[in-house]
User: Fold these one by one.
Assistant:
Number 1:
Amino acid sequence: MPVWQKKPQNILYPFLMSNVIINRVAEFLRRHPPFSFLEEGDLLRIAQSVEISYLAKGEVLFRKGEPANPHFFILKEGQILLQEEGQIREYCDVGDLFGVLALLGKRPYVLDALAGENSLIYAVPVEEFEKLLEKNPKVSLYFAAGFAAGQVVFRTDLGQGQKAREVFGRKEQDHSLLIFSGQSTIQISKNVLTCKPSDSVQEAAYWMDQQQVSSIVICDESKFPIGILTDKDLRSKVLAKGLSTSLPVSEIMSSPVITKKPESDFAELYLSMIKNRLHHLVLTEDGTDQSPVCGILSDHDVLLSMGNSPAVIIHALINARSNEEMGQIRDRAEEMLRYYLENEVAMDFVAAVMTEINDVIIQRAIEEGKKLLIPKFPEVGSIPFAFLSMGSEGREEQLLRTDQDNALVYGEVPESLQEKARAYFQELGTYVVETLLACGFASCPGEIMASNSKWVLPISSWKAQFSEWILHPSPEALMKSSIFFDFRVVAGTRSLGDELTSHIFDEIKKKPIFLNFLAQNALQNPPPLGFFRNFLVEKSGEHRDQFDIKARAMLPLTDLARLLILYHGIPGINNTFKRFEKLSELEPNYRDLFIQAAKAYEILMRMRALEGLQERNSGRFIAPEKLGKIQRNLLKNSFSPIQELQEIVQVRFQLDYFRS
Amino acid sequence: MSWWPFRSQTKKQDFVEEYLRLFEKPIPGIRRISQLEFVVLDTETTGLDPKNDFVISFGGIKIQGLKIRIETAQEWYPESPKEATHSAEIHGLLERENQLKAEEFSQNLLAYFGSAILVGHHLKFDLEMLQKLCLDFGLKNFSNRTIDTLELAVRLEHGPHVNWQGIPMRDYSLDALCDRYQITPDDRHTAGGDAFLTAQLFLKLLKLAERKGITTYEHLFR
């Protein structure tokens, strides 16, 4: 036992005595989330409890498998490497928090932590922090965001529907993470209930009941998964259809199964569940269905581990009973967005989640609209159609509820039904637009919406429209192209969208000069910095002296990305930063530039969204003097790829020659 | 008042006796540095003359288990001797409310020190100034072992048999050392601030010492 613990303590330290040292420590903590969310008193108490230690490069702080230390760590200086079997999994930089999840999950460390450089480490006792987790929902949400970003994987097996529902029912008032208050260590279920394809439905249901689980995986002799059967399948595929329970499970199972590796990071597992609307994700040894089953992750597990999470929000949207309710849920999504952004969750994850949420709203609106309208238009209700999102939502990068840009395309209809079809689809489009308005999405000032008869057209008219823009690239046509060319099918028949896409590519191939016009258009916005590296701010009007981040920085990048992706004839990638990533593969000699542009775009998206959330507007105009020095430099640096890309485009499309 | 100026004043007060008793049992030489307790301290004074100047503020923080423990951070402001009040007021430092009477200050100080090893930059001067305050209560000298971070840094950088004549002292000022050991010089020239900087410096020096095989009490004071 250390000497000082044996000695009677003859000084009582005043409980909250503030002094220059405590203030200095608090000052450092305050700059880093989650401490930035704390009130002064709480912050000082945390600061007072800090213990500082110093590790030389190469020294180990903790090892995988060791029980969690009763502290967690904030890196004050240096660098900490989190490793597994000598492989670096994460780097911790100054201000990063680590060792948290093992501690809160009450389980051993899953990684080794060692100093990559000489490092000064602040340790905070867990008791102090647990108090805050209970008291401060922001702090717990901060961890929720980290969790969602897959920083460290918490896996849970709940399977048992009842338990899950109890917890799920509390979601309304619960902003904190249940995982932090739960006592149990949470793991992926390794004991997966399986059966043979020849077993009967009745037997499968019996085993599921015995094990109190909501799914069973059907495997072949080598334990490779062939299919999955869930509670819902029993209900909708067997009972509702009046089929016999003595049928072999192979007749009704969902097959093939989507599989992942258990080592995949959480974000990946989770996104694949969200995207495929899976309630159960089967994990196999090598991640394909050609290897043995080794675990299962259910959406209850995920729901339980997060309060205000994408899964909860999407689930709530799917079950919302009114537009008002959907609007409220969409507001909640914005709260989640704010935490994601403030905590630097990876932008591709954030954009994917928000896009999915926005898409669900549209898909719900389409379903509701159809239910409402088909009785009125029975003859045209079965005509295929696709609801197109365009602009930023089309590019899967609409974080804030800025202008909606959308349209509707439908299949060919016989002459006799044309009037009816036109009326039906316009009413359907209007229904969706109204739902979006009710959910807080602004209306498009240019009326580019599926409620406008100009943009609710049969596919032949759409093709003609695109051909017209490509053949006669007037300034107005080019402006429209920048919105319409980024369309994406959100609901309805996907093949209509594909047909339209291939039509566009064919037309451009026939008339490549269109790309030169598009290029010229993409260069209209000069690089956003003046000669002295000052921001080019608005000269007059409501936004005088503010910087238009959308028009001056983001628009040039989206225009350039679209142009170059059309130039390469690559369909199906709408997202600006994904387009740049693709371009970096296609043009290896400009690889770094494209990667830089992708990064820049992510930074701009984050800044704009944060500004918008803060100011409760579109975030489009930013006052440069309001930005901190670091942010200002970050913003300026994000401009540098714009100019370089513009120069490349200038040369590639011979614009100097073209202009004269 | 007695004609003999030292009689009553030199009588050891109880808290001094208690403090001195802590040193009856020596620390075994083989005790690991990680098991030792250090008090890192600094003072602000009215000047550099131990005879006429006095302590305005004391800042200290403890290192236990090779960890700087923020909850042990202290800042105390002893009351100034009457005859010096005038000069101190010029510094504007005496308007503090939480000033301690000399006796209370000394009592706190000795209890805080305990038998810990005292650490400071130019520590001798600080201890001389502090000891003057405690003298009135019967303490002639602090009994704690001491480490001057200046000497430790020189010893670690130049070896134990260094020729002190050849050492440029400006390279071993607290500022220079903070710079060299990458410590941000925050709150410089406050007692608490300097104590905290010195503590961080000391922690880094101990790490360097460990690399050179200095891991126990006896190594440290060899």
Number 2:
Amino acid sequence: MLDMKQDFFELFGLEPRFAVDLDRLEQAYLEMQGRVHPDRFAHLSDAEKRLSMQWATRANEAFRTLKSPLARGQYLLELKGVDPAFETNTAMSAEFLMEQMEWREALQEAREAADEDVLDDLSRRIRRDTKALVEQLEAEFDTAGDLEAAADTVRRLKFLEKLQHEINDALTALES
Amino acid sequence: MALLQISEPGMSTAPHQHRLAVGIDLGTTNSLVATVRNGVPQCLQDENGKMLLPSVVRYLPDGQVAIGRVAQTAQATDPRNTIVSVKRFMGRGLKDVAHVETMPYDFVDAEGMVRLRTVQGVKSPVEVSAEILRSLRQRAEYSLGGELTGAVITVPAYFDDAQRQATKDAARLAGLNVLRLLNEPTAAAIAYGLENASEGVYAVYDLGGGTFDISILRLSRGVFEVVATSGDAALGGDDFDHRLFCWILDNAGISLPSDRDSRRLLMKAREVKERLTLDESVPIRMTLESGDEVDLVIERQVFVDITVNLVSKTLKPVKKALRDANLSPEDVKGVVMVGGATRMPHVQQAVGELFGQTPLTNLDPDTVVAVGAAMQANVLAGNRAGEDEWLLLDVIPLSLGIETMGGLVEKIIPRNSTIPTARAQDFTTFKDGQSAMAFHVVQGERELVSDCRSLARFELRGIPPMVAGAARIRVTFQVDADGLLSVSAREQTTGVEARVEVKPSYGLADDEIAGMLKAGFEHAQNDLEVRALKEQQVEAERVIEATEKALQADGELLNEAERAELDGAVAALRAAAEGQEARAIKIQLEVFNRASNEFASRRMDKSIREALAGHKIDEIRI
């Protein structure tokens, strides 16, 4: 019997690995939504409507998680019982803390200069670093099986994502 | 030997009975109703052959209510009782409404949503909207010759929870079964995408009478996926009228016009704006009741100059939506223009410049939303076979969160999340022995609660005494396919279950709606009961039909005993539906729902398995 306790990889019939074929993931997701989406059940009984909403919600959550490298990495750690400990600074290396400070300073300067080009440039650098970290994460999870290292990389990715949001907010603020 | 089945006398044997379903575009300026007839979507006309129903409601002293054109002609003579652009007040408090000072209404600043005092008493925007919807429902039932199974009502994509809830309440009040609230740009994308068999990334720029939406969609065979949406729920063609109105006052040297003169001048401004779409200059001549004379000429360029910042105000959300979608303007294959206000040449030009291409204006911007809604209603009512249905994946426009210490917002569901969606977040107590917790649910993008819209407040009581920080209260947000939120909270550590469902503070409470429904039937007391009975009977029929179909397809999922139980429940429901008691049917429906739960869940499992199996076969082939 299928049930809601299945993990997201099982739900879409995928191997629980970091490397995911995104086309395959999307295809499985769309096929599932095609079956369970509330629009398919709008004319049916309340019991079916309720089930449909639960399944569609689950499918959306699973797809959102597996699609994003950061969320996927975080989820894999969770499945393997490793807490990435985002809240505690003690888990972070001195090198990473230095890096964070440098990024923050760069963002602060760009904000003060109110320069769209500088912010865009920062954004490009973040994307480049993110790409490199994702490749590193794949090796740590799927080749080396080094969960400690993976947790560290996930923390770095999380930081970069937060930074990217702040840059977007700063760009939005510039336009208004 | 197989037994032949004979249906009961009077029971329908038609397996594919066409259900009457409509799409309704409840607009700020005009509203429309459309349906799919013989596979062709079409807007329904009134008895005078008009499709557009002006969204104007007039309350008369004798208890009558005039809707549409009749009401519109009275707006200059009876401005206080003639409500225009009521959509701007839906789910809004008085302080949220722009230009109140130039509006001729007698506002009542009620808690949650603003009300209007009329000759027929205080009316909520929900009641006013319900009059418009009721009129469209009657038009549809007359034109289609039967009662409607349901309706898809469109809302601006950028509508928040309170505005959506208010719209749904208005539909209920108008006696409509809401199949779905559908975002206006998404409805337009369905109409456009299906007609043109489009694939790729499209933007829908929807500037209506009072609202602006931008949605970025990815269209592929059979899938409409909204990637990001943004907008301004208080920006539309009305604002262009208002600018022109102010220009006329300035240039004619009029300082404080009366309510009636104001309304006439606003109507004039709209007319002039529309003429400026084709003409380079338009004369404005009018004698006001005050005796003041207006004799001006406006050049199109002047109109462009006084409204250019309104146009650029729409471009900010466009850029934001693109950024949220992680796309550049050149990734967009086509820009679909929707809403009457997109007829203005300088709007088209600005949008064209931003995207580096000529916007698509080949669909009627006034009707495309209603047409798309009708197509979706037809699918939701179950009138299409499974294979040629399309899949629609929409998103919520604004983040949803909870107030935390210090007036900050903890976002629980970020904007542009695909719906339906659910997210949970754990909170804890602040003081030792704290037994209750207050939650404040807000919607918006800002960090501070005071900058977001307050949706609801509720308390969780009965938390067992623990030291500060030991309790774990899990707050779960669920957004359904209409984009409507429900929230529950539960203490985790002790297993003590305390659950609360949110009551919307900006919409109307359920008993208020019930009261209004009742009031509507005061003149004919029996009507209420007749209507309730009819509703329950229709619901029972719907459920029985759906179950029989399901049993035909998947009967083997039940063993004999289970099958007998479900058959028994169907028979009991059918017997109740033949009676004359609404309550008895309602009870039997609940019994039935419990009995069918297991069957429904096995069918869902089977369907999902098939989806996955199909997927795996594909891979083997590769």
